[in-house]
């Protein structure tokens, strides 16, 4: 199955300078847990509900003064809409991420794909395998199997 057959297409992004209260409101109203963070049309990172909780709420940061760019995850893992589901599943497993940005052939963001999308669209075995790998705490993995974090393609 191609990624474009399973991905979520109503991609919402948030500006790097948007305040966290605005970001959280957009996420809440649209029932999403992650949004790409953009700056002048370029994707600079990913903002997740987990980022908001761990990097802002837990540190008692002001949600009006704190910007999306202040707490976003700078790594963005991406795939192409014409790739097979198994290709993005491999990325998710290796990088221990639950979502990936989906790009068109001309490198434009066109959607997101999550483990849930993979499951819903009939690739249950693949989704379960990804979830198993993503759920293993990094610190309990052998060092050689731990993901190597690097800047994204952006």
What is the helix/strand order?
EHEEHHEHEEHH
| CATH topology (fold) name | CBS-domain
User: In order across it, which strands form the biggest sheet?
Assistant: 1-2-3
**Mean pLDDT metric:** 87
Amount of helix:
25-40%
Secondary structure class reads alpha/beta
Distance between the termini: 26 Å
User: What's the β-strand tally?
Assistant: 6
| Oligomeric form | single chain
As a percent range, the share of strand residues is 15-25%
Query: Per the principal axes of the C-alpha atoms, what is the gross shape?
Result: globular
**Largest sheet: number of strands, sense, barrel closure:** 3 strands, mixed
- CATH class call: Alpha Beta
CATH superfamily: CBS-domain
User: Helix count?
Assistant: 6
Unreliable spans are: 149-154
Instruction: Give the CATH architecture.
Output: Roll
Total of domains: 1
Keywords for this structure?
3-stranded mixed sheet; alpha/beta; disordered C terminus; single chain; CBS-domain; 154 residues
